[in-house]
Amino acid sequence: MKLFVGIDVSSKDLQVVALDSEDQNKRLINDSFVNDLYGASELKKQILDLAQNKHYDQIIIGMEATSIYSFHPAYFFQNDEDLQKLNVETDVINPKETSRFHKVFEESKTDPLDAYYIALYLSFGHYRVSIARQDNYLALERLTRTRYELVQELTRTKQHFIEALYYRVNKLITVDKDKINTPLFGATMMSIVTDSKTLDEIADMPTEDLISYLQVKGRGRFSDPDTLAKAIKKAVRGSYRLGKVMTDSIDAVLSVHYNMIQSFNESIKDLEKAIDRIVDALPESKILESIPGIGKTYTAGIIAEIGSIDRFDKEEQLAKYAGLTWNQYQSGDHSNEHTPMARTGNRYLRYYLIEAANLARLHDPVFKKYYQKKYDEAVYSPHKRACTLTARKLVRVIFKLLKDDKLYRTPRS
């Protein structure tokens, strides 16, 4: 016999309904507890009392993923020493899954009802993934998720920087990249854009002086500084001129975005150092790093979200957890050729898998061949679609390697 404990979590309280497999209509617990250590401990006591009286084979405690509010209750119940002596599983559920389940019954949405349907959802044995137990995984998750958020912010800031730069010197954005073959966000170009020199000063500067300026900023790394200097001067001269008020405004915006970009880059480096210290201690890291190209950072992001591979029975479960699934549309003899990816699942895991797959296809012939095949087949957004499908293949490989506890070996052709 099993006990199912459904918890509807808010910032203030825990609405709880407990059912067992013997009689799902009888609510063994139907109460509200404060969302703090005292409230969780009181609920734990009631669960232990039920377990002592009924001798359950398994106790499943489930709650929806509700931003930061579900973290502490889930962590408490999963790691409590008294509960660990019993066969207790703690699940954090995608709210979309329970919402679809709830709609079948067409009842009003209230917190006690939500808790009841969470418990009922658990009793139906629907696909669930228990939270990672070890602190190392959770600590790594905090770091890798923060890194993800900073990378998103960095990308947005760079887009705003490019937009402002187009107002300031539009030809620098649209010029042929073969002529200015240095990265826009490299130290040299950023110095040119944000330095104290005005664009007119750069345009009027003798080519020899600009070459020297570029060599100093680029630390002598340019193979053809003469061509680069001429291309930059041409781009600056061909750009539209703005009035002083508008110019000062754009320069202020560029300066702010430049400082933000520098700050984000430094913060990401600091996080990656902290990530490296934790991931090196995890046994799964060597397995994932054996896949060519992935490296420590993406290995850490994947491990942090997967946790123990024992949480998953099949690779399809892992793919669904990551949101790397596609909805099939078919009616009669018609089947839609373009099947969009299901926008559900763990977006952090999906991001790290796709980024890792993009690196793996550059370093491993098997992934490269598969990527190219999917690229050639794609009708829309070939690179994006091929990377995503390659990430789905990577899921199969990672699942197999972790389950078998083996390093990756590139198959011989």
Automatic annotation (TrEMBL):
NCBIfam families: transpos_IS110 (NF033542)
Domain of life: Bacteria
UniProt record, GO biological process: DNA transposition
The Transposase IS116/IS110/IS902 C-terminal domain, residue ranges: 286-372
Residue ranges of every copy of the Transposase IS110-like N-terminal domain listed in the record: 5-165
InterPro entries from the UniProt entry: Transp_IS110-like_N (IPR002525), Transpos_IS110 (IPR047650), Transposase_20 (IPR003346)
Name assigned to this protein: IS110 family transposase
Gene Ontology MF: a single term: DNA binding
